[in-house]
Amino acid sequence: MMMFWPYAISLLLSSPSLEAAAGGGALSSRRYDSIFSFGDSLADTGNNPVVFGWYSIFDPVTRPPYGSTFFGRPTGRNCDGRLILDFVAERLGVPFLPPFLAHNGSFRRGANFAVGGATALNSGFFHAGDPPDASPLPLNTSLGVQVGWFESLKPSLCNTTLECRDFFRRSLFFVGEFGYNDYFFSLRKKSIQEIRLLVPDIIKTISIAIEMLIKHGAKDLVVPGMIPSGCAPPVLAIFAGQAGPDEYEPATGCLKAQNELAVHHNSLLQESLQGLRDRHPDASIVYADFFSPVMAMVRSPGKFGFEDDVLTICCGGPGSAFCGDQGAVTCEDPSARLFWDGVHLTEAGYRYVAEDWLSIIMDSPGNKII
Fold first, then answer.
1. Active site residue: 34, 41, 123, 207, which one?
2. What is the C-alpha to C-alpha distance for residues 227 and 254, in angstroms, rounded to an integer?
Protein backbone atom coordinates (compact mmCIF):
# COMPACT_ATOMS: atom_id res chain seq x y z
CA MET A 1 0.00 0.00 0.00
CA MET A 2 2.66 2.51 1.01
CA MET A 3 4.79 1.71 -2.05
CA PHE A 4 1.80 2.54 -4.23
CA TRP A 5 1.12 5.96 -2.77
CA PRO A 6 3.74 8.05 -4.68
CA TYR A 7 2.46 6.58 -7.91
CA ALA A 8 -1.19 6.97 -6.94
CA ILE A 9 -0.74 10.58 -5.87
CA SER A 10 0.96 11.49 -9.13
CA LEU A 11 -2.10 10.19 -10.92
CA LEU A 12 -4.30 12.44 -8.87
CA LEU A 13 -2.22 15.16 -8.89
CA SER A 14 -14.76 22.60 -31.15
CA SER A 15 -16.74 19.63 -32.07
CA PRO A 16 -19.57 19.75 -34.68
CA SER A 17 -21.83 17.95 -32.24
CA LEU A 18 -21.59 20.91 -29.91
CA GLU A 19 -23.40 23.01 -32.46
CA ALA A 20 -26.17 20.44 -32.57
CA ALA A 21 -26.39 20.37 -28.78
CA ALA A 22 -26.60 24.14 -28.79
CA GLY A 23 -29.67 24.05 -30.95
CA GLY A 24 -27.96 25.70 -33.90
CA GLY A 25 -26.15 28.48 -32.05
CA ALA A 26 -28.36 29.21 -29.03
CA LEU A 27 -25.24 29.74 -26.96
CA SER A 28 -24.38 32.85 -28.95
CA SER A 29 -27.35 34.61 -27.36
CA ARG A 30 -25.28 35.07 -24.22
CA ARG A 31 -21.71 36.31 -24.33
CA TYR A 32 -19.25 35.61 -21.54
CA ASP A 33 -16.19 37.76 -21.34
CA SER A 34 -14.42 35.65 -18.73
CA ILE A 35 -14.40 32.32 -16.92
CA PHE A 36 -13.21 31.65 -13.37
CA SER A 37 -12.52 28.10 -12.29
CA PHE A 38 -11.91 26.31 -8.98
CA GLY A 39 -11.09 22.63 -8.70
CA ASP A 40 -8.52 19.86 -8.78
CA SER A 41 -6.38 18.20 -11.46
CA LEU A 42 -9.42 17.56 -13.65
CA ALA A 43 -9.56 21.34 -14.19
CA ASP A 44 -5.98 22.50 -13.46
CA THR A 45 -4.39 24.27 -16.44
CA GLY A 46 -0.95 24.75 -14.88
CA ASN A 47 -1.00 25.67 -11.19
CA ASN A 48 0.22 22.32 -9.89
CA PRO A 49 3.88 22.61 -10.99
CA VAL A 50 4.11 25.85 -9.01
CA VAL A 51 2.53 24.39 -5.88
CA PHE A 52 4.55 21.18 -6.07
CA GLY A 53 7.64 23.36 -6.41
CA TRP A 54 6.81 25.10 -3.13
CA TYR A 55 7.08 21.73 -1.40
CA SER A 56 10.02 20.45 -3.49
CA ILE A 57 7.87 17.63 -4.89
CA PHE A 58 8.60 16.48 -8.41
CA ASP A 59 5.65 16.95 -10.75
CA PRO A 60 5.57 14.52 -13.71
CA VAL A 61 3.20 16.71 -15.75
CA THR A 62 6.15 18.93 -16.63
CA ARG A 63 7.52 16.23 -18.95
CA PRO A 64 6.42 14.76 -22.28
CA PRO A 65 4.20 13.09 -23.37
CA TYR A 66 1.90 15.43 -21.38
CA GLY A 67 0.32 17.92 -23.76
CA SER A 68 1.46 16.02 -26.85
CA THR A 69 -1.95 15.61 -28.51
CA PHE A 70 -2.90 19.29 -28.79
CA PHE A 71 -0.33 21.68 -27.33
CA GLY A 72 2.78 19.82 -28.48
CA ARG A 73 4.42 20.31 -25.08
CA PRO A 74 3.64 19.92 -21.37
CA THR A 75 1.44 22.76 -20.06
CA GLY A 76 0.82 21.63 -16.50
CA ARG A 77 -2.39 19.86 -17.48
CA ASN A 78 -2.77 16.23 -16.34
CA CYS A 79 -3.71 15.22 -19.85
CA ASP A 80 -2.40 14.57 -23.33
CA GLY A 81 -4.29 17.64 -24.53
CA ARG A 82 -7.28 19.79 -23.65
CA LEU A 83 -9.48 19.55 -20.57
CA ILE A 84 -13.25 20.01 -20.33
CA LEU A 85 -12.65 23.61 -19.35
CA ASP A 86 -10.61 24.19 -22.51
CA PHE A 87 -13.38 22.88 -24.75
CA VAL A 88 -15.96 25.03 -22.95
CA ALA A 89 -13.76 28.13 -23.27
CA GLU A 90 -13.27 27.47 -26.99
CA ARG A 91 -17.00 27.16 -27.55
CA LEU A 92 -17.73 30.33 -25.58
CA GLY A 93 -15.06 32.30 -27.41
CA VAL A 94 -13.00 32.85 -24.25
CA PRO A 95 -9.21 32.28 -24.18
CA PHE A 96 -7.86 29.22 -22.40
CA LEU A 97 -7.85 30.01 -18.70
CA PRO A 98 -4.45 31.11 -17.41
CA PRO A 99 -3.31 29.39 -14.19
CA PHE A 100 -3.46 31.96 -11.39
CA LEU A 101 -0.12 30.95 -9.89
CA ALA A 102 1.82 30.72 -13.14
CA HIS A 103 0.60 33.67 -15.20
CA ASN A 104 2.10 37.15 -15.14
CA GLY A 105 -0.39 38.82 -17.45
CA SER A 106 -3.95 40.05 -17.20
CA PHE A 107 -6.77 38.00 -15.68
CA ARG A 108 -9.60 40.10 -17.07
CA ARG A 109 -10.62 37.27 -19.41
CA GLY A 110 -10.60 34.80 -16.53
CA ALA A 111 -8.39 32.85 -14.17
CA ASN A 112 -8.00 29.25 -13.10
CA PHE A 113 -7.42 28.57 -9.40
CA ALA A 114 -7.69 24.77 -9.68
CA VAL A 115 -4.71 22.74 -8.45
CA GLY A 116 -3.93 19.07 -8.92
CA GLY A 117 -4.63 17.14 -5.74
CA ALA A 118 -6.82 19.86 -4.25
CA THR A 119 -9.47 18.91 -1.71
CA ALA A 120 -12.70 20.54 -0.59
CA LEU A 121 -11.82 20.15 3.08
CA ASN A 122 -8.83 21.99 4.53
CA SER A 123 -5.64 19.97 4.13
CA GLY A 124 -5.08 19.99 7.90
CA PHE A 125 -8.01 17.60 8.27
CA PHE A 126 -6.09 14.89 6.45
CA HIS A 127 -2.86 15.37 8.39
CA ALA A 128 -4.32 15.13 11.88
CA GLY A 129 -2.25 12.58 13.80
CA ASP A 130 0.35 12.21 11.05
CA PRO A 131 3.96 11.51 12.14
CA PRO A 132 6.52 14.29 11.47
CA ASP A 133 7.90 12.53 8.39
CA ALA A 134 4.50 11.94 6.79
CA SER A 135 3.82 12.94 3.20
CA PRO A 136 2.77 16.60 2.79
CA LEU A 137 -0.01 15.49 0.44
CA PRO A 138 -2.67 16.76 0.23
CA LEU A 139 -1.11 20.20 -0.04
CA ASN A 140 -2.64 23.42 1.26
CA THR A 141 -4.67 24.14 -1.87
CA SER A 142 -8.21 23.41 -0.68
CA LEU A 143 -11.34 25.07 -2.03
CA GLY A 144 -11.16 27.67 0.74
CA VAL A 145 -7.59 28.52 -0.22
CA GLN A 146 -8.60 28.89 -3.87
CA VAL A 147 -11.47 31.21 -2.97
CA GLY A 148 -8.94 33.25 -1.00
CA TRP A 149 -6.81 33.56 -4.14
CA PHE A 150 -9.86 34.79 -6.01
CA GLU A 151 -10.51 37.38 -3.31
CA SER A 152 -6.93 38.60 -3.61
CA LEU A 153 -7.37 38.96 -7.37
CA LYS A 154 -10.75 40.67 -7.29
CA PRO A 155 -9.48 44.25 -6.58
CA SER A 156 -7.52 44.13 -9.84
CA LEU A 157 -10.71 43.30 -11.75
CA CYS A 158 -13.20 45.72 -10.21
CA ASN A 159 -13.45 48.21 -7.35
CA THR A 160 -16.99 49.33 -6.58
CA THR A 161 -19.99 47.08 -5.95
CA LEU A 162 -21.60 48.30 -9.17
CA GLU A 163 -18.44 47.72 -11.19
CA CYS A 164 -18.02 44.21 -9.78
CA ARG A 165 -21.66 43.37 -10.42
CA ASP A 166 -21.29 44.43 -14.04
CA PHE A 167 -18.00 42.56 -14.49
CA PHE A 168 -19.09 39.28 -12.95
CA ARG A 169 -22.51 39.17 -14.61
CA ARG A 170 -20.52 38.60 -17.81
CA SER A 171 -18.42 35.87 -16.17
CA LEU A 172 -19.00 32.15 -15.85
CA PHE A 173 -17.83 30.37 -12.68
CA PHE A 174 -16.90 26.68 -12.44
CA VAL A 175 -16.80 25.31 -8.89
CA GLY A 176 -15.34 21.81 -9.02
CA GLU A 177 -14.95 18.95 -9.40
CA PHE A 178 -14.35 18.52 -5.65
CA GLY A 179 -14.69 15.35 -3.60
CA TYR A 180 -12.61 12.71 -5.36
CA ASN A 181 -9.37 13.74 -3.65
CA ASP A 182 -11.06 14.10 -0.26
CA TYR A 183 -12.19 10.50 -0.41
CA PHE A 184 -9.01 9.20 -2.07
CA PHE A 185 -6.69 10.68 0.55
CA SER A 186 -9.00 9.39 3.28
CA LEU A 187 -8.39 5.82 2.14
CA ARG A 188 -5.08 5.91 4.01
CA LYS A 189 -6.84 5.90 7.39
CA LYS A 190 -10.53 5.15 6.91
CA SER A 191 -12.80 2.44 5.60
CA ILE A 192 -15.27 3.19 2.83
CA GLN A 193 -18.04 3.19 5.45
CA GLU A 194 -16.18 5.82 7.51
CA ILE A 195 -15.44 7.87 4.41
CA ARG A 196 -19.14 7.95 3.56
CA LEU A 197 -19.70 9.91 6.79
CA LEU A 198 -17.55 12.74 5.37
CA VAL A 199 -19.90 13.45 2.48
CA PRO A 200 -22.19 15.97 4.27
CA ASP A 201 -19.20 18.03 5.46
CA ILE A 202 -17.68 18.07 1.98
CA ILE A 203 -20.97 19.12 0.40
CA LYS A 204 -21.37 21.84 3.05
CA THR A 205 -17.87 23.14 2.29
CA ILE A 206 -18.66 23.34 -1.43
CA SER A 207 -21.96 25.11 -0.73
CA ILE A 208 -20.33 27.68 1.54
CA ALA A 209 -17.78 28.48 -1.17
CA ILE A 210 -20.55 28.95 -3.74
CA GLU A 211 -22.38 31.34 -1.41
CA MET A 212 -19.17 33.32 -0.93
CA LEU A 213 -18.72 33.64 -4.68
CA ILE A 214 -22.33 34.77 -5.10
CA LYS A 215 -21.77 37.45 -2.44
CA HIS A 216 -18.74 38.59 -4.44
CA GLY A 217 -20.98 39.04 -7.48
CA ALA A 218 -21.02 35.67 -9.26
CA LYS A 219 -24.30 35.16 -11.10
CA ASP A 220 -23.77 32.13 -13.35
CA LEU A 221 -22.18 29.08 -11.77
CA VAL A 222 -21.54 25.54 -13.00
CA VAL A 223 -20.95 22.94 -10.29
CA PRO A 224 -19.66 19.55 -11.49
CA GLY A 225 -20.38 16.39 -9.61
CA MET A 226 -17.95 13.54 -8.98
CA ILE A 227 -16.69 11.04 -11.51
CA PRO A 228 -17.42 7.33 -10.95
CA SER A 229 -14.44 6.83 -8.64
CA GLY A 230 -14.95 3.08 -8.59
CA CYS A 231 -13.81 3.03 -12.23
CA ALA A 232 -10.70 5.18 -11.64
CA PRO A 233 -7.49 3.19 -12.25
CA PRO A 234 -5.76 4.51 -9.07
CA VAL A 235 -8.65 3.32 -6.91
CA LEU A 236 -8.79 -0.02 -8.72
CA ALA A 237 -5.04 -0.41 -8.12
CA ILE A 238 -5.40 0.20 -4.38
CA PHE A 239 -8.02 -2.53 -4.01
CA ALA A 240 -6.43 -5.01 -6.43
CA GLY A 241 -6.01 -8.29 -4.62
CA GLN A 242 -8.09 -7.06 -1.67
CA ALA A 243 -11.60 -6.77 -3.07
CA GLY A 244 -13.58 -9.93 -3.71
CA PRO A 245 -15.30 -10.71 -7.02
CA ASP A 246 -18.69 -9.66 -5.64
CA GLU A 247 -17.33 -6.15 -4.93
CA TYR A 248 -16.98 -5.39 -8.65
CA GLU A 249 -19.71 -4.49 -11.12
CA PRO A 250 -19.84 -7.47 -13.50
CA ALA A 251 -20.61 -5.39 -16.58
CA THR A 252 -17.81 -2.85 -16.11
CA GLY A 253 -15.19 -4.13 -13.67
CA CYS A 254 -15.66 -1.00 -11.53
CA LEU A 255 -15.82 -1.17 -7.74
CA LYS A 256 -19.41 -1.02 -6.47
CA ALA A 257 -18.86 0.69 -3.10
CA GLN A 258 -16.72 3.49 -4.52
CA ASN A 259 -19.23 4.21 -7.27
CA GLU A 260 -22.04 4.19 -4.73
CA LEU A 261 -20.06 6.74 -2.71
CA ALA A 262 -19.86 8.98 -5.77
CA VAL A 263 -23.60 8.59 -6.40
CA HIS A 264 -24.30 9.54 -2.77
CA HIS A 265 -22.01 12.57 -3.04
CA ASN A 266 -23.68 13.71 -6.24
CA SER A 267 -27.16 13.26 -4.79
CA LEU A 268 -26.41 15.37 -1.72
CA LEU A 269 -24.65 17.95 -3.88
CA GLN A 270 -27.72 18.35 -6.09
CA GLU A 271 -29.95 18.73 -3.03
CA SER A 272 -27.63 21.41 -1.69
CA LEU A 273 -27.59 23.26 -5.02
CA GLN A 274 -31.37 23.36 -5.03
CA GLY A 275 -31.27 24.95 -1.60
CA LEU A 276 -28.82 27.53 -2.92
CA ARG A 277 -31.12 28.30 -5.84
CA ASP A 278 -34.00 28.85 -3.43
CA ARG A 279 -31.91 31.25 -1.34
CA HIS A 280 -30.40 33.04 -4.34
CA PRO A 281 -33.07 33.22 -7.05
CA ASP A 282 -31.09 35.84 -8.98
CA ALA A 283 -28.19 33.44 -9.46
CA SER A 284 -28.14 30.58 -11.95
CA ILE A 285 -26.54 27.43 -10.52
CA VAL A 286 -26.18 24.51 -12.93
CA TYR A 287 -25.22 20.99 -11.89
CA ALA A 288 -22.84 19.37 -14.38
CA ASP A 289 -23.04 15.58 -14.35
CA PHE A 290 -19.55 14.02 -14.43
CA PHE A 291 -20.69 10.53 -13.42
CA SER A 292 -23.11 9.61 -16.21
CA PRO A 293 -21.01 10.54 -19.27
CA VAL A 294 -17.96 8.70 -17.93
CA MET A 295 -20.07 5.64 -17.09
CA ALA A 296 -21.52 5.74 -20.59
CA MET A 297 -18.00 5.57 -22.03
CA VAL A 298 -17.02 2.77 -19.63
CA ARG A 299 -20.10 0.69 -20.46
CA SER A 300 -19.96 1.19 -24.24
CA PRO A 301 -16.38 2.14 -25.16
CA GLY A 302 -16.76 1.19 -28.80
CA LYS A 303 -19.60 3.67 -29.23
CA PHE A 304 -17.15 6.47 -28.43
CA GLY A 305 -14.21 5.10 -30.40
CA PHE A 306 -12.40 3.63 -27.40
CA GLU A 307 -10.72 0.24 -27.11
CA ASP A 308 -12.51 -2.46 -25.16
CA ASP A 309 -9.91 -2.43 -22.35
CA VAL A 310 -11.40 0.88 -21.25
CA LEU A 311 -10.11 0.91 -17.64
CA THR A 312 -6.45 0.67 -18.70
CA ILE A 313 -4.43 3.89 -18.63
CA CYS A 314 -2.72 5.18 -21.75
CA CYS A 315 0.45 6.49 -20.10
CA GLY A 316 2.44 5.14 -17.14
CA GLY A 317 3.63 1.89 -15.58
CA PRO A 318 4.68 -0.80 -15.45
CA GLY A 319 4.91 -0.92 -11.67
CA SER A 320 5.49 2.49 -10.11
CA ALA A 321 6.75 4.29 -13.23
CA PHE A 322 5.27 7.74 -13.74
CA CYS A 323 3.85 8.80 -17.07
CA GLY A 324 6.85 10.30 -18.84
CA ASP A 325 9.45 8.18 -17.02
CA GLN A 326 11.97 6.32 -19.14
CA GLY A 327 10.41 3.02 -18.15
CA ALA A 328 6.84 4.16 -18.68
CA VAL A 329 4.74 3.17 -21.65
CA THR A 330 2.51 5.43 -23.73
CA CYS A 331 -0.25 3.97 -25.83
CA GLU A 332 -0.03 4.40 -29.58
CA ASP A 333 -3.32 6.26 -29.94
CA PRO A 334 -4.55 8.30 -26.92
CA SER A 335 -7.79 9.07 -28.76
CA ALA A 336 -8.67 5.37 -28.42
CA ARG A 337 -8.33 5.44 -24.63
CA LEU A 338 -10.56 6.94 -21.94
CA PHE A 339 -8.01 7.26 -19.11
CA TRP A 340 -4.74 9.06 -19.68
CA ASP A 341 -2.51 8.54 -16.62
CA GLY A 342 -4.92 7.51 -13.88
CA VAL A 343 -8.12 9.25 -12.84
CA HIS A 344 -7.45 11.88 -15.51
CA LEU A 345 -9.14 11.37 -18.85
CA THR A 346 -7.59 11.73 -22.27
CA GLU A 347 -8.47 14.73 -24.41
CA ALA A 348 -10.85 12.43 -26.29
CA GLY A 349 -12.66 11.54 -23.07
CA TYR A 350 -12.85 15.13 -21.93
CA ARG A 351 -14.29 16.18 -25.29
CA TYR A 352 -17.32 13.94 -24.84
CA VAL A 353 -17.93 15.17 -21.29
CA ALA A 354 -17.63 18.78 -22.49
CA GLU A 355 -20.33 18.16 -25.09
CA ASP A 356 -22.62 16.83 -22.40
CA TRP A 357 -21.93 19.74 -20.05
CA LEU A 358 -22.55 22.36 -22.69
CA SER A 359 -25.87 20.73 -23.49
CA ILE A 360 -26.79 20.71 -19.78
CA ILE A 361 -25.72 24.32 -19.31
CA MET A 362 -27.84 25.42 -22.23
CA ASP A 363 -30.91 23.28 -21.74
CA SER A 364 -31.32 22.65 -18.02
CA PRO A 365 -34.92 23.66 -17.15
CA GLY A 366 -35.06 26.55 -14.76
CA ASN A 367 -31.30 26.84 -14.64
CA LYS A 368 -30.54 28.33 -18.02
CA ILE A 369 -27.69 30.79 -18.02
CA ILE A 370 -28.14 31.85 -21.62
1. 41
2. 12
